[in-house]
Amino acid sequence: MPRRPIVKKEYTLGERVYLVEIAKGLRLTWKHFTFNVRASFRKGPHTVPTCWQYPEDRREIAPIFRGAHMLQLNDKGQELCVGCGMCARACPAKCITVKRGKPAEGEEDKYAGKTMCASFEVDMLRCIFCGNCEKACPKGALVLGQDYELAEYEPEKCIYDKERLLANFQRAKAEGRLKPPPKPIPVDAPPPKKKAAAGKAAKASASEKAAKGKAAAPKEAKKKDDKADKAKE
Amino acid sequence: MTKELETICITTGPTEVGEYVTLNIGPIHPAMHGTLRVITQTDGETVVSAKPEIGYLHRGVEKLGEHLTYAQFLPLTDRLNYCSAICNNVAYEMAVEKLLGIEVPPKAQLIRMIMMELARIADHQVCVGILGVDLGALTPFFYLIIQREEIYEIFEWHHGARLTNSMGAIGGVEADLPERFHEKWPRLRDTIRKANDETDKLLTHNRIWMDRTIGVNAFCGDDALDWGFSGPMLRACGVKRDLRKDEPYLMYDKVKFEVPVGKHGDVFDRYMVRMLEMEESIKIIDQAYALYKELPDDAPLMKKVPKIIKPPEGQIYHAIESPNGELGFFIRSDGTDKPYRIKIRPPCYMVYQAFEDLVKGEMISDLIACLSSLNVIAGELDR
Amino acid sequence: MADWQIDLIKVVFIWVWVLLIAVIMTWVERRASAMMQDRLGPNRAGPFGLLQPLADGIKLFTKEDIIPERARKILFILGPPLFAFPVFSAFAVVPFGDKIVIGGKEIILQVSDVSIGFLYVLALSAIAVFGMVIGGWASNSKYSILGGLRATAQLISYEVPMGLALLTIVLLYGTFSLREIVLQQQGTFLGFLPNWGFFKQPLGFLIFLVAAYAEANRVPFDLPECESELVTGYHTEYGSMRLGLYLFGEYVNLVTLAAITVSLYFGGWGLPYVDMSKYLGPVAYGIASFLVFTLKQAFFLFLFVWVRWTVPRFRYDQLMGLGWKALIPLGLINLFVTALLVQLTI
Amino acid sequence: MSLKEKVESILQSDLVELSEFRGDICVEIPKRKVIEVLTRLKEAGFDYLSDLFGVDNLAYYEKAKKAKKKKGEDEPEEPKRQGPPPPRFEVIYLLLSLSTNERLQVRVRVPEDDLVLPSVTGLWRAANWPEREVFDMFGVRFKGHPNLRRLLMWDEFQDHPLRKDYPLEGKGEERHLNYDIV
User: Which of A17, A93, B119, B233 has its CA 20 to 30 A from that of A171?
Assistant: First the structure.
């Protein structure tokens, strides 16, 4: 048998007779009860403050939420994805397959880059929504949107192809739920002076443009950063 | 009758058949938090032996880690202790940073601290709530879990996920504290305190609760150390040990907080230690937030790390105080972009192996109470 | 109308009425517990979710009826009715109103005024235990049998304090008939208190209430079916309408216990200080007395729910300890003191 | 006295190798003296067994060999370990001193043809499951362990999954449950 320390039970009289503490507890639950009953008779969708009635009454989703994927277009309606496959390589669950292709003749203006993705598949059954693909994308084309109702009746439908990913973006755009451009991360790196200045400039421009709701600025900043990194190396 | 019932359950390993009834609790059972399984021999309602069987949630995380890059392994750490994923994230990030030999900027450290303490509160809330549920008091669970939702909202606005956080990256954190946190925290602090207070009112002095918890599977401190206990479980046994104080990491040496210590290591002490720790966590967050405010807005959040992380050859072990205790990552690098060997030291693994010693001679109801108070998380236990 | 016709109407009425209250109780339980826990509860089926019990009933009826392969089949089938039948029948002796005069005929609002109403209630609640034990044993599952064993031990031990509390009432009023007891509780006590059993027997009431919670298997005494330990105890292996009978039987049991509490300790249908029969016509008086009774009953039903969602659960040995070491001695003392007082005052 | 000196003074001649990386000290001790050395360490203050686990060095040494071939003789100080091939497995004990909060990694090399180590469950009961796990994952047997069964994998499982030659996606093993209902 294991050793056990001897525990002395020292109860006060109030604790000993059960009823006092139970009465206190009853008072507490009664307070909650009356509060919530009163609240539930109020008009409106969200009456009891802690209870969301799901399909009608949804809680606010953070704009940076990591939900279903979408492939972004730029302001001119051009596809941003160049089919580089960085996302597929960064994915820990190996759920993305990308095929790189060249745009057909006469369709070059549909794409922002010189190349495009011929096919883009995300297997939502494998995806763990970690956001690594989003971080890896050099063009800011693949982002995780705010959709979280991803149940389907057939498993095949859970493999999102390019059309679906683009449709996700269109829908999000129509509903105004686009992901804000990523803020540049202030990085502590040598040499400090140059870098800090660049970071500040990038941040300033980013905040200006973010106010206008355009996605271009941070990409520039990112490019700058990338260039700087390359130069350093 | 005993013999007849015997044939229904599948027993693994040698079990004594005879005057005792084998009761197979789990892996599917309301109180077995996920997929734990305990094969008990009972004499009436008294537990004669209890042999935990684990491995029902074994996903081979350590093996997977050998085949993923350092950055790719980060999301998998969410799935260890899913009640406080951020602590796992930070533990792993800090282990890799130690391997790389870098120190993250102070602002990132403070953000990590704040987020980790929030995660600790969330974890303790779940643990205390579940303990209540398993002892028949469902109501406090809801009061606590509602506050956890609010904490999750802060997580969501900080890095975009509620449960599987994958917070930050190797080298720092990627986002500053969100607007939500600044708005929400002063109010949230009060509501968390209120919820804890209500739980306290409903449970702590209630004689039914006291009878159920005081003196139930009490445990000696030196036994606990021998079994490799850590965290709240060890502190409940009366050993004052907290990695935040003993081996300070991040900026824990710059904040003041108490380490609540129990006396007998019984369920009541574990419950009280967890309740008090939530209060201490609130204090830590307040102090860390004050320190955070002193830093300039554009202070760096990340240390520059190369895109493909290739640490030098070597091996390190780094442990932090997760809500359950010492959560350590042993990483050996062979100079490539993938870790050679990752070993996770989950805190509840060490605690759960002493389960038989903890519950021997107690009753079945105490077994359930004991299991809930240990806060064994199957994801962390089986990896 | 012949007497047997009136009796039949009364039986059907009380049957439907008890069922209805029990059905509403399942709704109240869920909604009230939700409100206490900052939730909303089921509110989709019908206005305020009032049709939720109906939906549950349909669900339970249409589920597959599974009998485990190695179960004792006959006993397994016999278990739920054996539990539900006595708890339904116990309501027969409860006076749910005073009397109503229809067509010059005086009808007492009670299915039958048996002179041993008391013993009848006790006996039936003892029979109901067999339903649980048989169900638990026939399932051939360890959780079930543990639940059944706990049910036996718990109900047998709490029968004793309950009996002691009831004995004091018998001593006090000198009758076994529930109707007689209610009639004796009208008027005032010591000039300012209602002449209720509660004021004459506060300790007895407390013992009775605690024992009633134990009889009804409610938290903090829900050991036979405590979910976190024994999955769901004695009805672990049951499904479909058999499970429905068990669950429903528990609510009916609650209704009966609340009704008995009201008629023993809270003056039954009578209002304190006011004699309704003076102001109301004979029909209206009957209905009013019935309503008063129902209101009092509703309070106790709510109390059952309220306490359930506030306190944790006992452990098996602590439950036994409370029963044998606290309630029975208290009950004996109470009985002794009451006997002494009764003897002295007579 | 620094940790390094302290360890050296405790171990003396039993110290096979001492390496330091980012402040973590790892000492190698001979296999046949595991219990003796660990007992000494425990008495000297390293009284808390934090963890115990195995490492398979197969791929590591193969890679090192390849790298050596590639580099040729550009770096002459590289071939440290010569002679017979190094033992394939390692078992690492993570010790902690509760009084001074110093951590120490103790490593024992276990060759493939003699996969037996004495169990330290007598010193620390905490070693119970970790040793079972090492047995499960690497096949290292611990002599004197009270209950050396598989921990995470099922009992009928044949392989040792954390070995480097075990494929990531398994070999297609399935668990056949034997419900022996008679």
Answer: A93
Contacts of C165 (CB under 8 A, 6+ apart): C201, C204, C205, C207, C208, C211, C331, C334
In this prediction, residue A85 has a pLDDT band, given cuts at 50, 70 and 90, of confident
- Measured between CB atoms, which of D94, D153, D166 is closest to B317? D94
Q: How far is A42 from chain C (nearest CA, A)?
A: 13
Pair type for strands D24-29 and D103-110: parallel
Report B:156-185 residues touching A (Cβ under 8 A): 156-157, 159-161, 164, 166, 169, 172, 174-176, 178, 180
Chains interfacing with A (3 or more CB pairs < 8 Å): B, C
Half-sphere exposure of A8 (CA within 13 A, CB side): 2
Tokens matching residue C185:
């509780």
The answer to whether residue C99 sits within a structural domain is yes
Fold of A69-175: Alpha-Beta Plaits (3.30.70)
pLDDT band at residue D179 using 50, 70 and 90 as cut-offs: low
List pLDDT tens digits, range C68-105: 888 888 888 888 888 888 888 888 888 877 777 776 77
Q: Judge whether B308 is closer than 8 Å to chain A, CB to CB.
A: no
Among chain B residues, CA nearest to C319: B208
β-strand partners of B46: B43, B363
Residue D75: CB atoms within 10 Å: 10
DSSP class per residue in C56-75: HHHHHHHS-----TTS-HHH
Whether residue B136 and residue C220 make contact (CB cut-off 8 A), yes or no, is: yes
In this structure, the dihedral spanned by the alpha carbons of residues B42, B47, B51 and B56, taken in order and rounded to 10 degrees, is 80
Phi, psi of D2 (to 5 degrees): -75, 165
With a threshold of 0.90, does the pTM exceed it? no
Structural domain span for residue C118: 68-345
What one-character-per-residue DSSP string does C118-150 give? Answer: HHHHHHHHHHHHHHHHHHHHHTT-HHHHHHHHH
B168-220, pLDDT tens digit by residue? 888 888 888 888 888 888 889 899 999 898 898 888 888 888 888 888 888 88
Q: pLDDT tens digits, residue range B129-176? A: 988 888 888 888 998 888 888 899 889 888 888 888 888 888 888 888
Q: Is residue C112 part of a domain?
A: yes
C226 touches chain B (CB under 8 A): yes
* SS3 label, residue B178: coil
Query: Does residue C39 belong to any structural domain of this protein?
Result: no
Would C45 be classed as within a structural domain? Answer: no
- ipTM associated with this complex: 0.82
Task: Tally the domains of chain C.
Answer: 1
Question: What is the per-residue pLDDT across D109-161, written as a single tens digit (0 to 9) for each?
Answer: 888 778 888 888 888 888 888 888 898 888 888 888 888 888 888 877 888 88
In sequence order, the β-bridge partners of residue D25 are: D20
Rounded to whole angstroms, the Cα distance separating B47 from B29 reads 17
Domain ranges across chain A: 11-58, 69-175
